[in-house]
Amino acid sequence: MRIGILAHSFNTALHTYEALQDLSESEIYVVLSPSPNRSAWSNHAVNLVRLGIASLKSISTLRLVANRRLVLLFRPLDDDRTVERLKHLDLDVGLHKAGVIYRQTTIGAFHVGILNPHIGLLPAYRGRSVMEWSLLQGDPVGITVFFIDSGIDTGERIVLSEQVDISGRRSMAEAKEYLFSLDGVFFRKALMMLREGDQTFHHNDGSGRRYYVMSKLFTNVVDQLLKEKRS
Amino acid sequence: MSTRQDLISHALRKRYIEVCTNARTLNATAFGDMSDFVDRVREQLIENVERGSFEQWEPPTAWLLCDLDCLSALRALAAGDALECTLGPPADSGFLPQLQQACRDPALRFELLIARYRHPLNFVATTERTIQEHILERLMVSDRSRIERQSPDAIDADDLLLKLNFLGIHASFTTDLRFLDALNYYYELLPSNWYPKSRHNWLLASYWSFYARALTVQVNRIN
Fold first, then answer.
1. Which of B7, B8, B181 sits opposite A215 (nearest CB)?
2. ipTM
3. What's the whole-model pTM score?
4. Range of the domain at A201
5. Out of B8, B137, B181, closest to residue A214 by CB
């Protein structure tokens, strides 16, 4: 299976790469696109510095470069020339680590699709601040890995969805960081399921609600809830 | 009551007192012809700090008709006056595409909304679910990000405040906390001394009134 980690920052991609690099029967590519807030050149200059630092610490980074599996894109992911380049890479699955919403043409450049590790349980919790909203409403917290479409967490094919225990976390920020840190683990589980041909997807039927960024008032309630749970 | 409900109730009660207390800072003279209305709302909120009681609203069981126009009806509801109404035929179901087409024209959107919701309580009807979601999304995505990137003056104040008024009314009826939290968010986002220089800037006062009502309804529901 040919897999592409889609990110703006090398460090973000590296975290996922390290979790997946020993996945058998797989070729992992790191595909870096420019951040919407930066020019491609300055974005990649920073990335090359980070790459250099990472190479000093880990041989796997050097291997990534030596095997020509580091791809630098100089245009946004939805640019026609970028889409052509992605098609040329002949990737089966993309892993979403870039802060963008994908257009259908970009998604279509991957044979199977682009996976997203969403820190909420679908179909109930779509959108933003879903960990906070789950806690506020007394529902379980978890991670759902699904194939995205061009909507907000509306992709129909859910590969896996699991509850995660965050009761030991001292604050909301810590709980969220913990969930984000699990993306490599969940990508790995999802890819293993796909590779084994277990493709009976759960259906994201759109029955849930779309959530939005939470107010400070309710955010404080969630923070207190976490503290109460811990004490 | 669970710890979770207790924490939510406590936070909402605290916010309710804050909103009512801050109503003292509403300068009625800044609202021109509508200074009497704003003054009424202000007094009502100040008096209500302890009582927490508002005129009871009945959820509409069918499409409501009233003789007033939408803006007069909003003022009446905010000031605690009763609205005379009769039952009418259901509204046409093709409203969402019209609103979506007007997404870059706030003045047209304002006109469309006040024409449809002559009786503002119709906004909470079950037939209006997609409209409620659309208004919530507009407020929490495009309007919010524009205000956060620039300032409240970067967007059409009447359009923004009208949407907040409708959301405020809906938040008094629904148990879906997303609607109340959009009002929480805007209360924190808009500067407390913000007086828009728009034609219907009094909608700021009615929004505060509906927000305070929604907070107290939710606290009573939890308790």
1. B181
2. 0.95
3. 0.92
4. 117-231
5. B181
